[in-house]
Each structure stands twice: as C-alpha cells, then as structure tokens.
Amino acid sequence: MISTSPINDLSTIQPLLVCPGVQKAASTWIHRQLEAHPEVSCTTRKEIDFWSARYANGHAWYAAQFPEPGKRKLYADITPAYFLDQNLPERLARDCPDARVLVLLRDPYERTFSSYQHALRSGDVRTDFATALQQVPELLDYSRYASGLAPYFRHFPSEHVKIMFTEALEAEPRAALRELYAFAGVDPDFVPPDMDKRVNVGQAYSRGRHALETVERFCKDRGLERKHLKRLGVDSLLDDVHGWFARRHRRPELPAEARELLAVVLEPEIDALEQLLEMDFSAWRWSDGARVSPMGGARAAQPSASGSALGAHAG
C-alpha cells in the first residue's frame, strides 16, 4: 500500500525534477551543474531522501528544503537511493504527475565494482568482493537497471523520463549539459564555471576523500551552499583537494574473478534493459575476458539494428 503524505502542497516547487540515481554514476557532478544554473533551485543538500525514507515528513517539509520556493524555473532533487524503492515512482506520479525524471546509468560492471571500492575504502565493508555482495545486496541492486527503470515508464509518460550515460558525460560534458538543461526547461546555453572539471565516478576512494566529503555534507546540512562557500573562499580550496585526490588515486581495474561473478546477474539485466529501451548495450558486455565493443561503456551503445530507436526514453 502506498502511504500518503500528510500535507499535499507542492505548488511552490514546480516544475520538479527528480534524479533517482544511480549511485556511482556522476550524480554529484550533475547536482553541481544544476545547482550552478541561475534558474534552478536544488535541495539544500544532495540526497534529501524525501520520496522514500522521509515521506512522512510531508510536502511542506519537503518544499522547505529548496531555496527560494516559487521563484525559480526548476526545482531539482538528486537522491540516488530513490532507485531502490519500487513504490516510489507510483508515489511521485500521484503527488506530482508533471515531474520530470532523470536517470543516470553507467557500465554496470564498473559501477558495481566502484561501489564496492567506495564502501571498502570508507570502512562500510571489510570483506572480499564476493562476500560483500552477499552481505550488502545494495552494491549490486543499483546495477539492476531494467528492474529499477520499468516502474518509471509505467507511471510517467516517456517524454518525462530522461536517461543519460556517465560515459557521455565524461566524453562530452558540454553537449550533455545542453541536453540536460533543455530537458529540464531551463536555459541550455548556460555554461557552469566548473563544467570542465573532471566527472568523478571512479577514482579509488581513500579515507582522506571520505573525510573531505564528510566536511562538505556538514556544510550542506547547515545550509551552506556552494555560493556561500565561495564568498568565504572555501570552495576553491575544496576543489583543489578534490583535484589532488583525483590525480593521486586512479580508477581501479575490474578483476577477472569479479567480472565472472557479476556476469551471472548482470547479463540478464542487460538483456532486459535492451528490450525495455530498444537499444543495443553490447558495449557493456564481456566475452572470453574481453569487451565485445572496444569503445567500452554506453558511448558505443546505439539503437538496435532493427531500426527501433530509444526515442523519448532517452529524451
């Protein structure tokens, strides 16, 4: 049964864009680019969790999490944890039928292993990869793309669902942002000041980086947005430290044994995603220890040879 929010008033935060993930697919970078846009109001901190864990707080509480309600052209909520809540799409469609949904996808093999590395370095898991997948199902659940996407297409018109690929964000950030801003209904020609900074989805995750992100979350929780940090001269310092970590810690390679373990679950999921989106994802597949496509990731993904295209599903 879908619970009902105590207060039904979202009029001051319309139109609303919700990004339900997935984790380790550049959602932090997307949050920054939306937050930088003068026509967009993002929640005062990323991952507000209203439509899942905090739904009982009510719509008035949710609206209060956005700066300048009623004064911006778009209100954006970036919360990757939403992807795992199968009831959320129905709840969101009922309360906010005109909402736009942005979903970020990444090579599921790399995403899953990156999520494990993140949890390992931050101390959330302390076991080998196979054991961690058993102990923490969420590590793999975020890579079950077809299962997580299907409810959104059941409850929203396809033109309200935008799918973007992390590989495309890394390869052509300006073109990707123009596409995103156009979908969101804001000025697509706006260029964020840090747009060219690397899309960070997979550097090795150190305890130092974890501490840095803890400081950033502390600031967010207390209403210190990026513009406030800039006035204090702190934002550039945080960016410099992030850059140092990015240069020092390279993206870890996916071991063969981990790839074989994941294939049992991920290959059927890729099959289902191809059917759902009518798109060829052979670039994400492995065969005899090698990539099927040399390009890797979704950059090589194309509409299926039968001629049916992704169309409105990808915007």
Short description:
This protein is α/β, with parallel strands linked by helices. 43% of the residues lie in helices and 10% in strands.
What does the model show?
The longest helix has 22 residues, at about 255-275. Strand 7 (about 285) and strand 8 form a beta hairpin. The chain is about 45% helix and about 10% strand. Helix 4 packs across helix 13 (about 255-275), helix 7 (about 145-155) packs parallel to helix 13 and helix 10 (about 205-220) runs antiparallel to helix 12. By secondary structure, it is of the alpha/beta class. About 35% of the residues are buried. A 5-stranded parallel β-sheet has the order 2-3-1-4-5, sandwiched between helices. It starts with 15 loop residues before the first strand and ends in a 12-residue tail after the last strand.
The CATH C-level name is: Alpha Beta
**Rg estimate, integer Å:** 19 Å
Uncertain runs are 203-207, 294-315
Alpha plus pi helix count: 13
Give the biggest sheet.
Answer: 5 strands, parallel
Mean pLDDT: 82
Total number of β-strand segments?
9
According to CATH, the fold-level topology is: Rossmann fold
Give the CATH architecture. 3-Layer(aba) Sandwich
Q: Look at the helices and sheets and give the structural class.
A: alpha/beta
Order of helices and strands: EHEHEHEHHHHEHHHHHHEEEE
> Based on CA inertia axes, which overall geometry fits?
globular
| Percent of residues in beta strands | 5-15%
